[in-house]
Amino acid sequence: MHVVAGVLRDSQGRVLIAQRPAGKHLAGLWEFPGGKCEDGELPIDALARELREELGVVVESARPLIAVPHAYPEQRILLDVWQVSSHSGIVLARENQKLAWAEVEDLARIEMPPADRPAVTALRLSDRYLITPPLPPEETDTVVRGIERACRKGVRLIQLRLPGWPSDRLARVARTARNLCRDYGAQLLLNGDWKLAAVLGLDGVHLPAAIAATLTQRPLPADRWVGVSCHDAGELAQAVRIGADFATLGPVFPTPSHEDAPTLGWEGFAELVEATTLPVYALGGMEIDDVDAAQVSGAQGIAAIRALWDV
Description:
Nucleoside Triphosphate Pyrophosphohydrolase, 8-stranded parallel barrel, TIM Barrel, alpha/beta
C-alpha cells in the first residue's frame, strides 16, 4: 500500500502531527498527516488531495523527503513523505482528528508509528555532510579553520576523519572542533572510534563498512548519531540491522582519489536507496550544486570532502 504524508511547518518552524483515531490501525500514535494513494494517482497529487481533505490547506510546492518501505504484521506499506515548502489556507481538523505542532527535536520523544521514524531522522539531519580531508597531524590549525569556514557557510553535520593521527592529538582537535560546532549549532561525528566519541561528548560516530560489519547492534545510545559508509545493498542492510541512523552511499561519480573505481550513477544510487529505510547521503564526485539532484534521486543530501571543505 502506497501512503503519502506531508511535513507542514508553522512560522516558528514547528511540525504538524496528527493523532490516529480510535479503531484504526496504530490508534493513538502520532503521525505526519496524509493518507493512501488511489490507483493511478501520482504521489504529489495524492498529497495535495489528502491535505486538502484532512486539513483544508492547498499545497503550493513540495519536495520528497524520504520514502520508507515498512512491513507491519497486518500489511506492507511504502510511506512517501514530502516536505511542504509552501501552502495556503488555515490548518483545520476537518475530520475531527487531534492535531498538534511539535518542535523537530521533540518528535523523537513522541510515540509515532515505526514507518514514521526514519522521516523524523531525516528532518533532524542536514542536507550537507562534510567529511574532513585526510590532513597530516601537524595541520591541526588547518582542520579547525576549515571546520569553522564550513560552519559559517551553513554546514551543520561534520565528520571528523583524520586517519593516522595519534590518539592524543586527535582528541585535542576533536574537543576544539566540538566546541566550535556547538557555537554554530552544528553536530560533530568522529570517524570509526565510537568509544572516543562518547568520552569526548561528540554528537556521534561514523562507521566504515568494515567496522559496521562486525557489529550486531548500534554502538552508541539513541541520543547520539550513528552513520555508516555503504557501497552496496548488503552494506545498507547491515546498517539497518545494527540500528544506524543514516548512511552514505557511493561512489555516485568518480572522485580524484578513486578515478577508476566503479560508480553507481544517479540511477544505481536511486535503486539502492529505494530499498532501504535509512536516510542516505550521496557520496563521490559531489558538488555543492548536486543537492537538488541528490534529493530527486531519494537522497537526504550530499556528503563530500572537497566540495564542502572549500565552500
